[in-house]
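Exercise 7b. Backbone tokens:
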């Protein structure tokens, strides 16, 4: 097969490319230039897709003796990921930009270009597995990335390859070292790739501006003023601008955000309990909608936030009734459904959370 490998410059995609070469495929590496300021370098392990990363990817391609290109996807990335991220926070939501990048850039724009150029498949360094065309969790549960891939449909998965999903991360680093790849010890990137400083609040504030509002308790008492709801997310405890705990002596958390009025509501930990989720724009990874109510597990964050649930399709949405509550669930997050399996949980579907209901 002709395989295009998305090479970020990290150890995971480098080993993925090497394994594709070992398998005898006709391999080409591509690095996505996603920043409009390519001269910006990473700071430690923060960020990715920098000029430094492109150089690392090119050196790996040279060792593997495969063609290598850098493709400019900065405009697409800005429109579909960064602008979406900013707009979502301005609405009081909490998006996951990695989910949007996979959905809109890597497995939409990039995959479409690869197929148009005659490639048979797109390989990436994601920790996930495809078994008989079905998306499953990776062997390494700590590194599993099936959640951020849960937005992919059956057509996109049909031309995807995840070469390292069957291997624990420590072994991937060992393999890279054995192959003489300098990226073997390169730190993993953390935080949001387009905010290498790690200061999300400042990044959003520079783009959204000041939109003053109030922080209020359950009784409507104003506890503090703020410069914009973009500085808050559901479940947040620190940085609320309020003095001390609640009347009960316990910590207070952000329990709701009203972007229209600029009101941030705070309450106790129990006020964060959510029992029902409604997800819009569902994607069914196996290609067909759920058949009646389905017992499954729902995951609402890339790492953690998992609960057993009964899920069904209603009026084009996914409605999940949770067996036990989840805390800190925000609209804008992605809910991914899994069918538990000893061989690796299977992804059934995903949707963007529109309602997080505290009522059972």
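Sequence design result:
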């Amino acid at each position: 097969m002709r395989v295009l490998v998305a090479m970020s410059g990290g150890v995971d995609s480098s080993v993925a490319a090497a394994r594709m070469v070992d398998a005898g495929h006709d391999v080409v590496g591509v690095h996505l230039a996603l920043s409009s300021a390519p001269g910006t370098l990473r700071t430690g392990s923060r960020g990715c897709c920098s000029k430094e990363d492109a150089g690392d990817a090119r050196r790996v391609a040279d060792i593997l003796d495969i063609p290598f290109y850098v493709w400019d996807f900065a405009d697409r990335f800005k429109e579909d990921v960064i602008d979406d991220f900013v707009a979502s926070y301005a609405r009081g939501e909490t998006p996951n930009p990695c989910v949007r990048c996979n959905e809109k850039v890597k497995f939409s724009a990039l995959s479409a270009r690869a197929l148009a150029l005659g490639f048979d498949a797109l390989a990436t360094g994601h920790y996930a597995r495809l078994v008989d065309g079905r998306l499953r969790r990776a062997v390494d549960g700590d590194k599993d990335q099936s959640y951020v891939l849960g937005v992919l449909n059956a057509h996109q998965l049909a031309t995807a390859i995840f070469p390292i999903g069957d291997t624990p991360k420590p072994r991937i680093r060992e393999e890279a070292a054995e192959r003489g790849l300098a990226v073997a010890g390169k730190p993993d990137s953390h935080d949001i790739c387009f905010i290498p400083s790690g200061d999300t609040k400042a990044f959003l504030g520079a783009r959204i501006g000041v939109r003053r509002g109030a922080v209020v308790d359950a009784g409507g008492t104003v506890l503090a003023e703020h410069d914009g709801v973009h500085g808050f997310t559901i479940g947040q405890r620190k940085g609320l601008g309020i003095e001390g705990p609640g009347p009960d002596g316990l910590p207070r958390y952000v329990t709701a955000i009203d972007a229209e009025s600029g009101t941030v509501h705070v309450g106790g930990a129990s006020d964060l309990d959510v029992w029902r989720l409604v997800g819009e724009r569902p994607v069914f990874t196996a290609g067909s909608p759920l058949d009646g109510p389905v017992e499954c597990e729902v995951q609402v964050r890339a790492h953690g936030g998992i609960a057993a649930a009964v899920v069904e399709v209603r009026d084009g949405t996914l409605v999940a009734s949770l067996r036990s509550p989840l805390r800190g669930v925000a609209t804008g997050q992605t809910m991914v459904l899994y069918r538990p399996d000893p061989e690796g949980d299977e992804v059934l579907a995903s949707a963007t959370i529109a309602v997080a209901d505290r009522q059972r």
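Instructor comment: The chain has a mean pLDDT of 92. The chain has three domains: 2-125+163-185, 210-271, 273-357.
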